[in-house]
Write a structure and sequence with these properties.
4 domains; 4-stranded antiparallel β-sheet; 43% helix
Length: 443
């Protein structure tokens, strides 16, 4: 309070609000109030402790062990609860509605009490928080070159489907009913009934989130999680190319690059050699083909004959594969378009075991997308649709290789090792070729 002799003025600060008011007492002892509603300037907070909560009441739950409150810098309700050790745990509920915030805070409190009794970390993570950590972990592995190609599919499933549906739930509270609701929602979003291979990707992505939660101590190792259904429609076999269609592709690719410039022209040149390499080796498009380096290629001699073999790393691990003899010409074309190694003889290039990618542009940059340019090629050559009116892809070239080898009577066990797959898988997908392979005996 301050005092002025003129007209006997008394100034007061209201400590329960930001208002000031002044009392004037004149000679006739009349009293006059003047209220200044201008907010008093606030000194900026220097520490977290100085940050005031927004003007609201505290909401006490569970006999005062759980408290909801608001802070001026957030629209969401904040919460804190007391542990058995009499320590306060503070967190944001992420909820604006007070009833939702109450429910969330109490669920977190119950889970933390349970975990504290079992000796686990107190704060349980929501599904979206676990999923975020899981995706970041897979992206780190992919960036380091140790991640599997399927991680890209897992990340897409998690971020596009799992998080939007389960995001605000706790992993341990997800029920079988909610799993069924998710599957109905997902199928509506897909606008089709998913095939078994698609369902396996969803189930694996969900299981990876569960495994991450256990590994990080956010969920007990003894916790039971519901599983996603993996029974769907059979995916069938990807359509292959006939010998005549392969010739048509190669003829078009021989001059296709002359109709473009820059990276587009280089992409078409690389595609020409990629198509030949996939047909000549049966390797998988993606991790195996695009990760192939010159150091992974060597000569292998057996009984006086030299064979070209390649070391590839794919979804089933690492293996050696033998390339067709004509693959040498494919590799020589690739070498000729790479200025840093073009002056070497082919044998010198193989001997030096250089850690350089086989599929790269002249400036050493990696091609960013081969599937789209291949699809454009198929559209231009009217070869997009194959058997049963299914779209062909680069993977169809691997199917073409397998089909040709089986029709040439290559032993199925040898072929399984060459392609990095199992005999059972080959029998399942190529059993329809059995009659064709025995045509001479059957006719």
């Amino acid at each position: 309070m301050t005092h002025s002799n003129k007209n006997s003025a008394f100034n007061f600060q209201n400590y329960y609000s930001t208002q000031k008011f002044t009392i004037f007492i004149n000679a006739n002892t009349h009293v006059k109030f003047v209220v200044d509603k201008t907010p008093a300037p606030r000194k900026p907070a220097q520490t977290l402790a100085e940050l005031d909560t927004a003007p609201t009441r505290l909401i006490h739950l569970r006999d005062g062990d759980v408290v909801l409150y608001r802070v001026s810098r957030s629209r969401s309700w904040q919460a804190r609860f007391r542990t058995y050790a009499n320590k306060w745990m503070r967190f944001s509920t992420g909820k604006r509605d007070v009833e939702d915030a109450k429910r969330y805070a109490c669920e977190a409190f119950d889970e933390a009490k349970y975990r504290e009794r079992l000796g686990f970390a107190l704060m349980v993570k929501r599904f979206d928080e676990i999923a975020k950590y899981c995706c970041e972990d897979m992206r780190r592995d992919l960036a380091a070159g140790v991640g599997k190609k399927v991680y890209t599919a897992y990340i897409a499933v998690i971020e596009t489907y799992l998080v939007p549906f389960f995001g605000q739930m706790f992993l341990t509270s997800i029920t079988h009913k909610q799993i069924a609701e998710f599957e109905e929602w997902r199928n509506a979003k897909l606008k089709r009934k998913p095939k078994t291979s698609t369902l396996l990707t969803f189930a694996s992505a969900f299981s990876r989130i569960c495994a991450t939660a256990v590994e990080q101590g956010w969920v007990s190792a003894t916790a039971k999680f519901p599983k996603l259904n993996v029974r769907g429609e059979s995916g069938g076999v990807r359509p292959a190319f006939t010998d005549k269609e392969v010739i048509q592709l190669r003829e078009h690719l021989a001059t296709w690059h002359t109709q473009a410039k820059g990276y587009t022209a280089e992409m078409r040149l690389l595609l020409r050699d990629l198509v030949d390499l996939l047909i000549q080796t049966g390797m998988r498009q993606g991790t195996e083909s695009m990760g192939l380096m010159w150091k992974h290629i060597e000569w292998h001699e057996e009984k006086g004959v030299r064979y070209l073999r390649m070391w590839v790393k794919g979804k089933t691990g690492e293996r050696w594969l033998i390339a067709k003899h004509e693959c040498v010409n494919t590799l020589k074309r690739l070498q000729a378009n790479q200025p840093d190694i073009a002056s070497l003889t082919f044998d010198e290039l193989i001997e030096r075991r250089l850690p350089l990618l086989v599929f790269r542009f002249a400036d050493n940059n990696e091609p960013f997308e081969m599937n789209k340019v291949f699809k454009r090629l198929l559209i231009e050559t009217d070869l997009l649709k194959g058997q049963a009116d299914k779209d062909r892809t680069l993977y169809s070239l691997r199917h073409t290789y397998a089909t040709n080898e089986l029709l040439s009577s290559t032993d199925i066990h040898t072929l399984a090792k060459q392609m990095g797959t199992s005999v059972l898988m080959l029998e399942r997908h190529y059993s329809k070729l059995t009659a064709t392979m025995a045509a001479e005996k059957l006719a």
